[in-house]
Structures are given as structure tokens and as C-alpha cells.
């Protein structure tokens, strides 16, 4: 079972805006990090699970890691957001490992996440109040 990463969907108003950001990077999306994960080999076939509003809301498959040439690394991702069953997850800085057995399952075809159905303003307010 592959190892995964978790990361906050920083500056995304909702899972829908995160999906739009990813899809606008047609070839591949990438994030910059200072350090190459020590368990990089175990991440082959894994995904980056996105945290929004203290919930895991979706995942993007990891394509690999690449040096930027400036002492940092890119986490290369497929430019898509695969919805998962929302699961509570505390916010953290940077990324953290997520064992495969602890990862939430993908939503099936036709299933809609309750978070996707909420207007961004409501989602933001519920998050601010600590209810999500």
C-alpha cells in the first residue's frame, strides 16, 4: 500500500476553487517544498491529500519529485482533484505523511461531497467558526 502526503489547500476558498486551480495547470501542477521527503521511494503511486476546512476533501496523484535548481524541490502532481469521503484532519504546516490504511476512500461516480455543494462563503464561515 503506497504512502501519501497531506497538505493544506492554502488560499483555496473551497474544494471547487482548488479543483479549478489544479485543472488550469493542464500539463501538471506542482508545489514547492524545501526538503525532499525521506520516505520518497514509498510515495511512488501515492497521492497528495488536500486539507480544507479541517477535513481531507480530495487527492491529487503524485507524479514525482524534481529539484528546482534553487535548493528546493517540486512535488509534481496530476492536475486533477479526486473527491474523497470527507475525513477530519487538523491543520499543519508543510506536508505530513498519511499511511495508505488511514486514507479516506474516493467518492464513487455520481456521489457529491457535501462540501462541494456548499457556497464558498458559507464554507468559509463554518470553517472560521470551527464547525468544519
Structure in a nutshell:
With 132 residues, this protein is of the alpha+beta class.
Question: What does this protein look like?
Answer:
The chain is of the alpha+beta class. It has one domain. It is 17% helix and 34% strand. It has 3 helices and 7 strands; from the N terminus they run E-H-E-E-E-E-E-E-H-H. The protein has helices at 15-23, 114-117, 120-128, and strands at residues 4-8, 29-33, 47-52, 55-67, 73-77, 82-88, 95-98. Strands 1, 2, 3, 4, 5, 6 and 7 form a 7-stranded mixed beta sheet that branches. A hairpin with a 2-residue loop joins strand 3 (47-52) and strand 4 (55-67). The radius of gyration is 14 Å and the shape is globular. The mean pLDDT is 85.
Strand content: 25-35%
Q: What is the number of E strands?
A: 7
List segments where confidence is low: pLDDT < 50 over at least 5 consecutive residues: none
Give the ordered list of helices and strands: EHEEEEEEHH
Shape: globular
Distance from first to last alpha carbon? 29 Å
Class derived from helix and strand content: alpha+beta
How many domain regions?
1
* Major sheet: 7 strands, mixed
Helix share of residues?
Answer: 10-25%
Radius of gyration: 14 Å
With helices defined by DSSP (H or I, 4 residues minimum), what is the helix count?
3
Q: Could you report the average pLDDT, rounded to the nearest whole number?
A: 85
InterPro entries: UCP032025 (IPR008320)
Pfam families: DUF1489 (PF07370)
Organism: Sphingobium chungbukense
Protein name: Lysophospholipase
